[in-house]
Design brief:
This protein is α+β, with helices and mostly antiparallel strands. The chain has eight helices and eight strands.
């Protein structure tokens, strides 16, 4: 319960940025890559904007104390610092939260307003209430194929899973499922609609409904074992048992 309370507090401190999403008609031809540390206060604003823009992204975690994907970061930038965005559509490599956000807004919006990144102190405070989770890595046995996580940045339950993936240094495809319409609001069993819930056609929420039979985040799909899981507690336990160092 303390985990959930502190995660809700972190989202509240960020004014629940990374909740709503534009209706994106299509994804970039090639998926973006973000070198990221879940608990890093400078990475968080980038992920918030990626939710707001409805962009899919491969997350390559770079936790402290373990190799993670730091060697790739250093090869790309010559520095030991995240966030770093690599865009295979343009060949651009961009470092730093403000530069990445400016790049994303320029490359992947059409007069769409996104949240301005707030002061770093606010993001540091949000990291602080999570007691530095999603920062320090530990030994693991990463899977061969990329996991797939349906999530949106401010979701308190999804954050627990993303923290675990960072600590284990497991790369994954993040399918952003920001809220795009009134009926997306609320928990899955208590949405503000009198009709059958229908997500925006073509959205990641619609894809999740087709894939898993309901729209609820977090949802993790592991192609290595052809297994899909809802509920953060079950997902975290699965990741520990399946990929944590024995």
């Amino acid at each position: 319960m303390l985990d959930i309370i502190s995660s809700v507090t972190a989202s509240t401190l960020r004014s629940w940025r990374g909740t709503r999403s534009v209706v994106r008609e299509s994804q970039p031809e090639k998926i973006l890559v973000l070198y990221d540390m879940e608990g890093c206060p400078y990475c968080r604003p980038v992920r918030e904007v990626m939710t707001e823009l409805g962009l899919d992204v491969i997350i390559k975690p770079c936790p402290k104390g373990t190799p993670g994907f730091w060697s790739e970061v250093e090869a790309l930038t010559g520095k030991h610092q995240v966030p770093v965005l690599s865009d295979p559509n343009t060949g651009e490599v961009v470092s730093g939260s403000y530069s990445i956000i400016a790049y994303l807004n320029n490359a992947y919006t059409k007069d769409v307003a996104t949240s301005e990144p707030s002061l770093p102190s606010v993001s540091r405070l949000a990291s602080g209430v999570r007691f530095a989770k999603g920062i320090r890595g530990r030994d693991s046995n990463p899977p061969k194929m990329l996991l797939e996580l349906y999530s949106f940045e401010s979701s308190p339950y999804s954050r627990l899973v993303r923290e675990q993936l960072t600590e284990l240094g497991i790369a994954y495809v993040l399918r952003n499922c920001g809220k795009q319409q009134l009926s997306d609001q609320g928990v899955p069993w208590l949405r503000p609609t009198f009709k059958k819930y229908v997500p925006v056609p073509g959205s990641n929420r619609a894809k999740l409904l087709e894939k898993a039979g309901k729209v609820q985040v977090p949802y993790l799909y592991d192609p290595n074992n052809d297994r899909g899981l809802f509920e953060s507690k079950m997902i975290v336990s699965y990741l520990n048992n399946q990929y944590g160092a024995k």
